[in-house]
Write a structure and sequence with these properties.
This protein is mainly β. It is built from no helices and 13 strands. Helix content is about 0%, strand content about 70%.
């Protein structure tokens, strides 16, 4: 117990899969999607969230210690509040990345953008440390 794995592969975008996760701190939540938008809401609490998406937007407002997102085509939006030190491993090939993690007092996050506007201005008003990397190849990147 402690892990949730979700695999989706819709062909025409009409499939809607809604998974309700009980109030519980999971060790890991893993989501693998080929063609779907992914929304991990603020009611979700996990030590590690791993998302691999080929086509679709990814929105995360959950509580986590480690967040890994690899998205090929689609925007990534993370809006969360740290309850401990957090590790971010976020990459996008084609799409904008917008990351906001409140309660961070120290940032050791490597931010890189190849083609697009890059803003690396995390709000350092908290007691936890964020580390890891946020990398975008084609799209705008904001770490605020």
């Amino acid at each position: 117990m402690g892990s949730v794995v979700i695999n989706t592969s819709g062909s025409n975008g009409n499939l809607i899969l809604e998974v309700m996760i009980p109030s519980y701190t999971f060790e890991e939540i893993a989501i693998d999607s080929k063609n779907a938008n992914i929304d991990v809401t603020d009611t979700v609490n996990a030590e590690s969230i791993n998302i691999d998406s080929k086509n679709g937007n990814v929105d995360v407002s959950a509580t986590f210690q480690h967040l890994s997102i690899n998205n090929k085509n689609g925007n990534i939006d993370v809006d969360s509040t740290a309850r401990s030190d957090v590790k971010l491993d976020i990459t996008s090939k084609n799409g904008n990345i917008d990351v906001s993690v409140d309660n961070i007092g120290n940032s050791k996050v490597f931010v890189e953008n190849k083609n697009g506007i890059c803003k690396n201005r995390p709000r350092l008003k908290g007691k936890y440390t964020a580390y890891g990397s946020i990398i975008s190849e084609n799209g705008n990147l904001r770490f605020k």
